[in-house]
């Protein structure tokens, strides 16, 4: 890292340790949105933002925001952020690293006596992970005006999402949509092994992969497992097995190119699932992720053809693949990617461009402003697990990149990049 930097790895390590201590005691590290531990974490974070000199508030969508007013606030806002909620039995870094790195940028600017022209904000987005309400990115969807109105009536036990957002301090019936944000940047752990394997400090994220979920139903016939001859069966499981292998083969072919592609048969239900019955029915749910839309379209087409071919070979009926949900890829803003590359050089960080296979708040923020993100390495690519690990030094180098990018943007945005 640039030796003049006012970014301090020690402060980052201390903050991450403090938040790690706020967890369900018997299952580290768990701080799910809307639970008492989440509120405790938020309270800690709010104080840390204030200690850094920020004015704090909860916006209408339930996001915690720390604001450092700019010298010329009419220029608009540069926002940094991520999320402080975790998955059950999650890690100490997913989301948290980005919030703490953003906070460290605020402290570093203060330490070097820099007041930006733009207002700088740090956001802790509400419920980025799939929450007790079964949906994700509640806060960033709210801030980008993309939260479906009917979501407020979702329930978890006795609680509606509307009440839960109010309990957090938000105003669920008011719009949280922003039009003053000129640029948004998020630091996140990679959640994969590429940076570690290639010994590269920073991933500059070209795109957040689009996610398409596809359901396939295989309709065989239940028969006696002992008496039905092998040639006279309509076994839904063996046909489904051919399909699962076909999905893997197709995905490997698409993943062999330049762009990121992955597909997984993530859900698989077989009925009747009994030892002495030939399987009658299988439902499979495929999760496919593509950096490039044309790869996803090719996957869906070839899956359709492949499934038809398997059905005629095995003689078991297979439904046409049904698209259950479909989100387009989100490219990083081209100007911001250039600014981030340059900031890596200034900070002395090695860097490469790469896609994100996971969804992030940035994908929603990109709907209302220039948005991009960077990855820092995480050990062995482990994430959504208690042994998730990123070093404070790696996060500090990422924070230094954010700091340089923010300072560059403070000027560049006035030149209308
Ligand atoms: Zn995350």
Structural write-up:
The protein is an alpha+beta fold. 35% of the residues lie in helices and 23% in strands. The chain has helices at 9-20, 36-51, 96-111, 138-143, 161-168, 194-198, 236-255, 293-314, 334-347, 361-365, 392-412; strands spanning 55-58, 64-68, 77-82, 119-124, 155-156, 159-160, 181-189, 202-208, 210-219, 261-271, 281-290, 317-318, 322-326, 330-331, 351-356, 370-376. The strands form three sheets. Strands 1, 2, 3, 4, 7, 8, 14, 15 and 16 form a nine-stranded mixed beta sheet that branches. Strands 9, 10, 11, 12 and 13 form a five-stranded antiparallel beta sheet that branches. The chain has a two-stranded antiparallel ribbon with strand order 5-6. Helix 1 (9-20) crosses helix 11 (392-412). It is elongated, with a radius of gyration of 24 Å. The relative contact order is 0.18. The model has no long low-confidence stretch (mean pLDDT 97). Zinc ion is lined by residues 83, 94-95, 128, 188.
**Helix/strand-derived class?**
alpha+beta
Rg? 24 Å
Largest sheet: 9 strands, mixed
Instruction: Give the uncertain stretches in residue-range form.
Output: none
The overall strand count is: 16
Helix content: 25-40%
- Outline, from the CA principal axes? elongated
This entry's quaternary arrangement is single chain
Number of helices: 11
- Beta content comes to 15-25%
Mean pLDDT equals 97
SSE ordering: HHEEEHEHEEHEHEEHEEHEEEHEHEH
Ligands (ions, cofactors included) = zinc ion
Note the gap between the termini: 27 Å
